[in-house]
Amino acid sequence: MDFNKNNKKERAKSKVNGRRDSDRYQHNLQFYSVPPTDNISLQDFEEYAVERLKVLKAVESVGVKFVKGTENYHEALNKELKNTAMKFITKSVIKKEKDTTDTEYNDRKKDHISHFILRLAYCRSEELRRWFIAQEMDLFRYRFGLAGNDSNSIKDFLDTNNLNYTPIPDEEKENLRTELVDSTYEKTTTSVEVTDYFKVPFTEAVDLVRSRKVYLSKGYAYVPRNELVSIILGVFRSNLSHSLAVTSRALPHLEEDDRLLPMLSSLSKRYLGQDYSNRKPTAGQITADMIDLLSKESFPLCMQQLHQGLRQNHHMKHGGRMQYGLFLKGIGLSLEEAMKFWRQEFTKGQTDPDKFDKQYAYGIRHNYGKEGKRANYTPYSCMKIIMSNAPGQGDTHGCPFRHTDADLLRQRLQAMAISKEETDQIMDSVKGGHYQVACLKYFQFSQKPKIEPTWALNHPNQYFEESRRVRTGGHTSQPKTTSHSAPLTQISTQSSTQSSTQQSQGSTQATVQPEDSFEELPLSMEDMVAMDGMQ
């Protein structure tokens, strides 16, 4: 894939100009077997990646709220996907290439390219690969289901992707009618007559065999059309898993291109929702004296942990100060009140006022954009806390649901008056690796009055704002912005004004949030001494 400078003429080349590859995009649904070879601008590269990521985040969010395959699941997923920039994903696969408009052709092209861009970002570790495969499989299952019972459309898709699954002849089906009726719950003679069955080796239908949904005979499984997606998903998963492994081995070659590597490295941790660096405080003017009460009422568990650690130790390491300090900034604590809060707490321990001013005050002012390059740093998102800078010995930062021992976490939750049944629900989400869902359940069980949130949690400051709405009686069922419907404001506004400069220099920077800046914030003198092993 080539990358052009970002100007209008070059960007226009990425659109259909009367010439099409008639063999490439024959259906809305794709198997992603062949990598794209198009020219694409760096701005489009980043935009496609973020749009695809929003789609997969929507798939994940709906998947943990509803039972997959149910009517409620499909309705919720359809609604969420229509709120993304890639709403064309909700279209049926029936229409073939020769019948498509230029817009539809470009949509299919974007679908193809964006998938392969995220392959580059999510092949970097086993955990990322598992997440990417799971979401892409759920998305594929949903899109395959849009074809419904259209036999011609499904046959065209199978033929296009060299998937040699053909229905058994009517004569063979007639001979096996009784067995096919008995093999599946609620199957009748009439339904068998109007249903196509596919004869496949039973090793390709292990899931269906396990759940007793198919008839087995002489090493073959007879799969009804409505269960064919399970067979195709197995092939899709196998191909995608192999491709990610191959891409991972080839990834070192990308390190030579400093335009792409920073953006690809940050994609998996990127926050796509509201920017809390310039938000108007929802709880009014916050002062240092109010933090104790607010921490008990409305702080997420990660910030409660940091606050309690600070109160107990009268000190906090760099990672904790960054995570907690930017969170307090996001809820509305001014620079003056922040200096007062940190100074009061640190000077209760072994830090005298002069030492605080020399070693720690600069870092606080830096967070507020008053020192250094004067950047307006944004509070950490959930994904940034979960995926980066895991806490070490003596640290209090991080995500309790991700980084705390399960037995200790259970003990802490029950000490907070969370019932055993509620704790079990939270721990089930933790066990499944759904840490943000676990935090959302903690929100549900700890708020007074208790409510069942219908929104996705993506940010500690979002947790705080929703909690204040509940506490003040002004809560809403939906937050103002979710990760699925958040506009590409930061990308579109910043990229459009800076694109010519950035592209002429041959570089691309993630401008979705200031937190994606790759420049480290300054360490205090104490932190640097500790890192050098000189204490």
If you had to describe this structure to a student in words, what would you say it looks like?
By secondary structure, the chain is mainly α. It has helices spanning 8-13, 42-63, 71-82, 102-122, 126-145, 151-160, 170-175, 177-183, 189-193, 206-210, 228-250, 261-267, 291-298, 301-313, 318-331, 335-346, 353-359, 361-367, 382-387, 400-403, 406-415, 420-431, 435-446, 460-471, 489-504, 525-531, and strands at 2-4, 39-41, 197-201, 215-217, 220-224. Strands 3-5-4 form a three-stranded antiparallel beta sheet. The protein has a two-stranded parallel ribbon with strand order 1-2. Strand 4 and strand 5 form a beta hairpin. Helix 21 (406-415) runs antiparallel to helix 22 (420-431). It starts with a strand and ends with a helix.
Uncertain ranges: 5-14, 475-535
The CA-CA distance between the termini, in Å, is: 50 Å
Number of alpha- plus pi-helical segments: 26
Percentage of residues in helical conformation: 40-55%
Strand content: under 5%
The strand count comes to: 5
Structural class based on helices, strands and sheet pairing: mainly alpha
Look at the structure and give the mean pLDDT.
Answer: 80
For the largest beta sheet, what order do the strands appear in spatially? Answer: 3-5-4
Q: Tell me the radius of gyration.
A: 27 Å
Q: Per the principal axes of the C-alpha atoms, what is the gross shape?
A: elongated
Main sheet attributes: strand count, strand direction, barrel closure: 3 strands, antiparallel
